[in-house]
Amino acid sequence: MTAVRSDTNALVKKALKSFLAKWEEECPDVNPFSHEDQHGKPQIRNADTAMEMLFHYIEERRSILQSRDFKLLAIEQPFAVPLDADRSDLFYIGRLDKVFEYQGRIYIGEHKTTTSYKKDGPFRSDFVDSFSPNSQVDGYLYAAHLIYGKRVKACWIDAALVHQHVHDGFRFIPIERQLQQLAGWVWEARYWVEQIEANERVLGSNQPIDEYDYLPAFPKNTTSCTNYGGCPFLDLCKMWSNPINHDDPAGFKIEKWEPFDALEFGKAKGKVGGTDKQLNRKMSLYDNTRLQSFRTCARAFYFRHCRDLTTADTRLPLVFGSCWHEAMDIVWKELARK
């Protein structure tokens, strides 16, 4: 690597420290510097790769983050925005990675890591195209418009390539939406909420579901079973027509998905982005994870969000992404300050 600025070295060390602290929190049993995963297969998502990426990322982003036209407004901004005027308890919740002002307009920034490498890319077109249309991007832009108003311009996907040899693959992917498109997203979100709640009512009904040969709710979407490396619940669907009759299987652990706690709404005092209400667990709170899970496969949603099952194995792509987010918080805060 060519010589780098001394302040870059210092910032890399600080960001990597945050990366490693998050790694220790997420998977303390896995060595962050190992180049093999827990099954002995080559693994490029490690701290060495992250360190190389950080050197290049800081130099790549320094000019814009220290520009006179740039102002960082928020890091990890939690939000809760209403989905239905007729339901005071229904909110779409989440957290905006970054909110910033650039050339007089407001943008939200979302960090994404990927191994989708293209030699002259650096990203494959299917990765770039995956953000338009994209339910998460649309939902976050909907929230941003409610919080920040007409000054909101776009969402910038801050894409970072994870590769064994290429460590300078970064790109801002700008995504804009018209208000009519965001209105369409709101309708779709309400539709999926209604579908989730209808299926949950079947589980809570007086029907003798445990006596049925099949589960009359949360139907399988068999076109998604092998996507993205395969559904973690695929074997359960192969074995059980009615999972109600079966205890929690080996190889899984119980881990409730609690966005209310993850976003720390319980600690929030005063206004949370998008609402003046004090949120509580009794409200109907939906985030992108739950909505997207149901859209992908209702049966997988049942296993994950009704039975609270998740795989016991560490999923390093998710861990690396979380750790990269932590490092980005440090980098953006330090560069924007200067």
Distance between the termini: 25 Å
CATH fold name of the domain at 6-183 and 315-337? Lambda Exonuclease, Chain A
Helix content: 25-40%
Let me know the average pLDDT: 92
Report the total helices: 10
Strand content: 15-25%
Radius of gyration: 21 Å
The secondary-structure class comes to alpha/beta
Silhouette: globular
- Spans of at least 5 consecutive residues whose pLDDT stays below 50 are none
Report the sheet with the most strands, covering strand number, pairing sense and barrel closure: 6 strands, mixed
Task: Please report the total strand number as a whole number.
Answer: 8
Order of helices and strands: HHEEEHHEEHHEHEHHEH
Level-1 CATH class name of the domain at 6-183 and 315-337: Alpha Beta
The CATH architecture of the domain at 6-183 and 315-337: Alpha-Beta Complex
Structure in words:
With 338 residues, this protein is α/β, with parallel strands linked by helices. It has a domain of 201 residues: Alpha-Beta Complex (Lambda Exonuclease, Chain A). 40% of the residues lie in helices and 18% in strands. The chain is built from 10 helices and 8 strands. The strands form 2 sheets. Strands 1, 2, 3, 4, 5 and 7 form a 6-stranded mixed β-sheet that branches. A hairpin with a 7-residue loop joins strand 1 and strand 2. It is globular. It starts with 5 loop residues before the first helix and ends with a helix. The mean pLDDT is 92.
